[in-house]
Amino acid sequence: MSLQQEMVYRAGRWILPRMLGDLKVEVHGLRNFPPRPPALVISNHRTMLDPLVLLMKVDKPITFMAADYLFKFPLVREVFQAAGVVPVHPEGGAGVKGSIERAIELLQAGDYVGIYPEGADNFARPLGEEKVGPFHTGFARIAHATRVPVVPVAVRPERESLMAQVPPGLTQWFTRSPKYQEGVALIQYHGRVDIRIGKPLPLKKYYERELDGNMLHEMANLARTCVHDMYRGRNLKKWMGANSG
């Protein structure tokens, strides 16, 4: 991580508590977070606040990946570029190849990298019954290429509500994805936000095998099960160990 990125990160940690107001953030399982990089951090994704609350409580300079269309907004683009945020196509597929290669470079250089395997899917229907969507497999490709610890994180608010509905006309300006034909719903967190950090995922058996599609989906399903369980407060001892409190 460059000196500029480190300065942006430190400034952000000072500003964030003042931005979040009365929102109380509690972290559980902090000892599960690797004290030294590299490591790949994966988490559920429901609002733009998710990386902010994580950075506020985990004193580690994580380089996040973010949807490429966010770089179309002038102020956001400048902040993201200064922070070293890696743009990624949220729909997955061939469009993420360069982003995956960049994440691999960062991990091989000894950085923490954060990725949201759901992409931005939850922004289409964030108030639906299922709060943790299917995981794309890009993170699994990164993990297989680097063999770094993969740290699962679940961010769960006490309450959430609809903050704004972005109409389809505006949504089409920055993404043509059919998932957002009805627009994008933005939610906000209220009360307390719990961050649960799990033990690094048991992926060694996959690293010993040749990469293929079935294995990528197995890794994605394992990771999604872990994050979903922690989000729901289930099997915490299994995923978080003695640090589940």
Describe the structure.
By secondary structure, this protein is an alpha/beta fold. The protein has a single domain (about 5-245), classed as Glycerol-3-phosphate (1)-acyltransferase (3-Layer(aba) Sandwich). About 40% of the residues lie in helices and about 20% in strands. The protein contains 9 helices and 7 strands; from the N terminus they run αββαβαβαβαβαβααα. A 7-stranded mixed β-sheet has the order 1-7-6-2-5-3-4, sandwiched between helices. The radius of gyration is 17 Å and the shape is globular. The mean pLDDT is about 85.
Distance between the termini: 32 Å
- What integer is the average pLDDT? 87
Determine and state the CATH class. Alpha Beta
Secondary structure: helix percent = 25-40%
Question: What portion of the residues fall into strands of 2 or more residues?
Answer: 15-25%
**Number of helical segments?**
9
Q: Which sequence of strands runs across the widest sheet?
A: 1-7-6-2-5-3-4
Order of helices and strands: HEEHEHEHEHEHEHHH
User: Can you tell me the residue ranges where pLDDT is under 50 for at least 5 consecutive residues?
Assistant: none
Give the tally of structural domains: 1
Radius of gyration (CA) equals 17 Å
| CATH topology grouping | Glycerol-3-phosphate (1)-acyltransferase
Number of strands: 7
Please describe the biggest sheet, giving its number of strands, its sense, and whether it closes into a barrel.
Answer: 7 strands, mixed
Secondary-structure arrangement, i.e. CATH architecture: 3-Layer(aba) Sandwich
CATH superfamily heading:
Glycerol-3-phosphate (1)-acyltransferase
Sheet/helix structural class: alpha/beta
